[in-house]
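Quick log. Single chain, no ligands specified.
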Amino acid sequence: MALTARQVQLAKPGDKTITLTDGYGLQLVIFPHGRKGWRWRYYRPNGKRNMLSFGHYPEVSLAQAREQALDARRLVKQGIDPGEQRKQDQQEHAETQRNTLRLLAKEWHDNASKRWKATSKRAQLSWAVLELHVFPFLGDRPIEEIKPLEWLAVLKRLEEQGKHEQKRRVHFFCRDIYRLAIVTGRAANNPLSDLGVALERGPGKRSFAHVSQEEVPALYRAIHDYRGGLMVKYAMQLLFLTAARPGELRQAHWKEFDLEAAVWHVPAERMKMGRAHQVPLPRQALAVLEQLRAITGHYPLLFPGRSDPRKPISEMTLGMAFKRMGYAGRHVPHGTRHVIATGLKERGFPREWIELQLSHKLPGIEGVYVHAMHMSPEQRPRMMQEWADLLDGYLREGVDKHSA
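-> predicted structure:
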């Protein structure tokens, strides 16, 4: 006969182990020391007998033990051994418990740090952000168990504190951590992918100070007439002729330049995105480089420092030059890239050519799958040659006006 809850409660231990049967293989085992445990006996799909433990009474009630037995019988009917299934579930649970956010974050950070250039502070900054704003709340949780609402709470906390840049970094870094977890089979989905709809946009990122397109001719003529040092003058000209980042140009080595092929090969370790970059060199840039080589060609660097030629000129050098020309607060070296991008867009060049010239990653899926360099003669080289010719025209305009 089936057991009743009262029988289970009142069952007393004896000198030997007592077994009470509930039916369908479920048993209550009463040990001499008084402990009561649930056991279920069954035949495996291979015909061999086996036994499973369903826990102890009163932690597991009669009704709960019957429910476990019913679930196990259903597995047997499907040809599944409940004992083997339990082992598999336990292994998966143990693996889940090991895959904490902190562990996955460390793995992601180690991989990402190899891609970031050695001098970058990004590795240190990214880990500091996680330690300060994420790990205290979610760091020791299995990554699969963290709910979207918990991530929203982390990001909302930063939003309410007005820390929009920190919020952006947390969102970006943690979204990447989940991508690693997904491709390595340790997470099924990315709860941070769609959280943007529940967050404020935050203040826009300020662009670097730059002149308008109407002011470019006067600025480029001022650079051409600069008397503060030929090396600095050539650096400012090359900024306008290549659209390179000021840091990439300052640290450029002569060995990176193939003047015959008219290409500057910037190595990955000096690029912000951590990937090698090709810069087409228009005729005007080649002419500037020839003039510069007469001055610094015997050094490894294009722009060696005055006190130590093994190091590049200071990052303040070009900024001070623009200030001396009267452009303080109106134009900074990095703003030159904005000027060039706008000028090229206004002249109808394809967006992907411009973004690649600036060494920007294309957005969305395009950035994942499109790896073309657009370096055929009719693509980026022609685009930058037309831009250089336009700048040359501004110089001729200045001569013509002066002659008149």
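The beta strands are 18-23, 26-30, 36-43, 49-57, 257-258, 263-266, 277-280.
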